[in-house]
Amino acid sequence: MQNIKQSMLAALLLVSLLLTACGDTVESNSDDSAETSASDGETTAGVDEYGREIIAHGLPDDLDFGGMVINCLVRDLPSYSIDFGVDELDGDIVNDAVYERNGKVEDEFNIDINIITVPDTNTTTSEAVGDLLRTSVMAGERAYDVCAFYQIYGSSLGLDGMLYNINELDYVDFSQLWWNQDFYEELSYKDQLYYMVGSINLSVTSSLMGVFFNQTKVTDYYSDYDFLYQLVYDGEWTLDKFSELVRDIYTDLDGDGAASEGDFYGLTMVEDDPGPWNAALNIRLCTKDETGTPRLSFYSERSVTAYEKLYSLYRNSTGVYFGAKGYDYKTAFASGKSLFAVCSLESAAPHLRDMPDGYGLLPMPQLDENPEKYQNSARDSSNLTGVAGDCDKLDAVGAMLELMNYYSYYDVTPAYYEVAMKTKYLADSDSANMFDLILDGVVVDFGEIYSLAISGGQYTMDGIYAGQMRNLIRLKITDLGSNYAKFENIYESCLDEILATYDELAAR
After folding, report:
1. Tens digit of pLDDT for each residue in 302-311?
2. For 28, phi and psi rounded to 5 degrees?
3. Mean pLDDT score of the chain, rounded to an integer?
4. Which terminal residue of the chain has fewer beta carbons within 10 Å of its beta carbon, N or C?
5. How far is CA 262 from CA 188, 220, 252, 323, 331, in A?
6. Quick check: is 72 in a domain?
């Protein structure tokens, strides 16, 4: 519990700083504020307006790439393409911070960042960015230099030789604050690294999962809603407590005598929404052994216990509506049809913006009391960034990625948090604290990233991807163990193939 309290002290400091910030733009750190040269990368004595130490980026001062065009391939959905760039200034604080970031990188290195967008196919077998990259690399076209792809569908690109080993990329320093260390450590194997996540990846933050609650409706059933925040502060926000709060909340609003979309529930959920529970309940698909080798670890006494609790919540609770595919549970929640909704931060935003009732935000419930942190993970649709395997502009690409993440850390990330926390998610200061706990609790799982490949390349009900528990609940399968046993050999064989491929790549 001490760790949660320490995190909250840090959260309160961050939130207080965010809430005192104002204006429509975010001022970038200037060279005048740094007390070290841009080449030594040491921490300065100065801090930015958010209380963070200003660090020189460490890149050479004299890099000039002669107007070289760097082609960046991204999905055309704004929530994903914004990681790499926007077309123009439009007055939105995040949009404009991204636009200005790219301009500074282009000016400093004399490059042209060319954003190429492609429709997001999101099929069960392919993903548009990955398909285009494969075609280009295999044909030797060198059409793209950097790509940002749908995590679960694109994670095999490195294994297939379509991506460059980022560990061999000059100018990229993963020890710096603007890179996600958890992703780096979890996805590195045999000195191979094909995917990166850093401060440019706003899509990862926006894809984090949380529990939203209706502040107005909660007071109809409980004395107030502050006790929900207190449960989190006290380390008592568990799956059992969550189930207790929602399982009996039901009102037949339409008077038809049957549970339907038109009624009021404690919790609304849709059967095809990504399952967020593995990370929250501390169930890992893979765990690295003492040699750093990923091993299957999904099936255990803990996962069985967790599954039984989830099944009881979704299938044996009057107060839970587990809607069929197509059911818009987020709109149902926003219109006052439920007390709680579990969804990603980004996907909730358009629904909550015009919500007549007040709302609050909580982290995902945990399996045990007094967690070290409230664990969370991004949806499998969030971006991973890679460098094309046939890229012949490696120095320019490495320098560009390092500087883009550097300026994102100091300029874009504060703007994003400011908007997210003040405009979309902050009903009160406690929700701001919850937001920070969500950010602090992000975990990465090698098995989740490679879950499609471990499942034999099939996104099926029986796959070992993030939503396996959800899909088994959907099929009303009560025995997790027997179902897992049917496919365990497939999972083991596929993981062995992944690791063998890494061995082959390392030997080149």
Report:
1. 999 999 999 9
2. -80, 155
3. 85
4. C
5. 48, 19, 8, 11, 12
6. yes
